[in-house]
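User: Could you check the structure of this?
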Amino acid sequence: MTIKERFGFVTLTLAAAFVGGAVSGHIFAARTVDAANAPRMITAQRFMLVDSRGKTRGEFNVTRRGVAQIAVFDGTGTLRAGLGVGSDGAPALGIYGHDGKPRAEVGLTNSVARVVLFDADAKPQATLGVAPDGQSGLGLMDKNGNPRASIIVEADGTPTLRLADEHRGRIGMDMTPDGRPGLALLGNDGKTRAALTLNTDGAGALTLFDASGNPVSSVP
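Assistant: Sure, the predicted structure tokens are below.
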């Protein structure tokens, strides 16, 4: 359920609470009777919710893989939202488009909180994650799902920016814990070929590397 939908639900609930007089009294009286006669516990492996036309709008079940899940469908029977918890305790919330393909996911895996956004073809395009130690990261992918850009902030506050082609990282920029920035250019094989840094005394330095990644020259 989106934030907008949640707010809308709350608004309707509050509006209903202000319906006055005999109407509200009749509703609460009916609920009291139903609650008194309701069974204390119902055990089942699957619950289905249907609308007035018999169309499935909701489902609560446990899958063969041990995932307890709640699925919500629109009026055409297309999955639009899902909430699940795996047998290992990992929870996830999914939002789906009109065609039933995933467009957004919020989850917690191995104590890492994550958000994933998908394009219309269900390919991941952006990710956001936070690790238990406070490390956070943002990743951007191209239309084929290849990682193309990322920024990571370490637990000590050190940031790193990486840019990549469709195969591997080609540019890296970071900041050391003591405040020295650096820029690295990488070859097709992923090895550093040039680096621009600041030394501890604040002076700049340019270093060039050979095909094996060994420094061959430096200025100054």
